[in-house]
Write a structure and sequence with these properties.
The complex is a heterodimer of chains A (115) and B (110).
Chain A (H helix, E strand, L loop, with lengths): L3 E3 L3 E4 L5 E7 L5 E8 L3 E8 L6 E2 L6 E7 L2 E6 L8 E8 L10 E2 L3 E5 L1
Parallel strand pairs in A: 2-11
Antiparallel strand pairs in A: 1-3, 3-8, 4-5, 4-9, 5-6, 7-8, 9-10, 9-11
Chain B lengths: L3 E3 L2 E5 L4 E7 L6 E7 L5 E8 L4 E4 L2 E6 L4 E6 L8 E8 L6 E2 L3 E6 L1
Parallel strand pairs in B: 2-11
Antiparallel strand pairs in B: 1-3, 3-8, 4-5, 4-9, 6-7, 7-8, 9-10, 9-11
The chains are: A mainly beta (115), B mainly beta (110).
Chain lengths: 115, 110
């Protein structure tokens, strides 16, 4: 079974702090994704990566950056945390390939509160 | 652009069938997925259907795909309280991120 592990289930940080959310997958997937989930808004894609050292902006990248130094690890960085970044953050991974079945596999999520 | 629409809420009685509907816009979708999210957890892949199929059955789950109308449904037979969750449909087109609907919250009344 694919395992996507997010480093924290719950995290509380202060406004202005630099926050790191870590995600590791064990299935050698090329693609990795970061989403945030808010009530009534569904999942919104922040950033994704198709390969090591590659990154692509999703729908809401402002206020975030990412790092993919190793294939199995994808980090989400909040450069200067603000209260409107309080949310549930979900990491996912998938295989790469055109026309192939590529479901995304999700971690359990990190519920981040910014005070 | 691509868009996936779902109704936000569904309430059913225990033992009844649930039908969750989804419409999508991208005619080049290759795979369509259903995910389940229990409270406080991530999304769990439930089932999927390839775009050249019109039906797939997996135990209590039946997926129906009407490609002409771009309509996807998930039927859960004999719905149990453990089926209470948010259900997301998602479509895949090429090597791009999945496009997700906003999710349907299923409440099962005992």
């Amino acid at each position: 079974d694919v395992k996507v592990t997010q480093s924290s289930r719950y995290l509380v940080k202060r406004t202005g702090e630099k926050v790191f959310l870590e995600c590791v997958q064990d299935m050698d997937h090329e693609n990795m994704f970061w989403y945030r989930q808010d009530p009534g808004l569904g999942l919104r894609l922040i950033y994704f990566s198709y390969d090591v050292k590659m990154k692509e902006k999703g729908d809401i990248p402002e206020g975030y950056s990412v790092s993919r130094e190793k294939k199995e690890r994808f980090s989400l960085i909040l450069e200067s945390a603000s209260t409107n970044q309080t949310s549930m953050y979900l990491c996912a991974s998938s295989l790469r390939g055109m026309g192939n079945n590529q479901p995304q596999h999700f971690g359990d999520g990190t519920r981040l509160s910014i005070l | 652009g691509e868009d996936v629409e779902q109704s936000l809420f569904l309430s059913v009685r225990e033992g009844d069938s649930s039908v969750i509907n989804c419409t999508y816009t991208d005619s080049s979708s290759t795979y369509l997925y259903w995910y389940k999210q229990e409270p406080g957890a991530g999304l769990q892949l439930l089932t999927y259907i390839f775009s050249n199929m019109d039906m797939k059955q997996d135990q209590r789950l039946t997926v129906l795909l009407n490609k002409k109308d771009k309509h996807l449904s998930l039927r859960i037979a004999d719905t149990q309280t453990g089926d209470s969750a948010i259900y997301f449909c998602a479509e895949l087109s090429g090597n791009t991120p999945l496009v997700f609907g906003k999710g349907t919250r299923l409440s099962v009344i005992a």
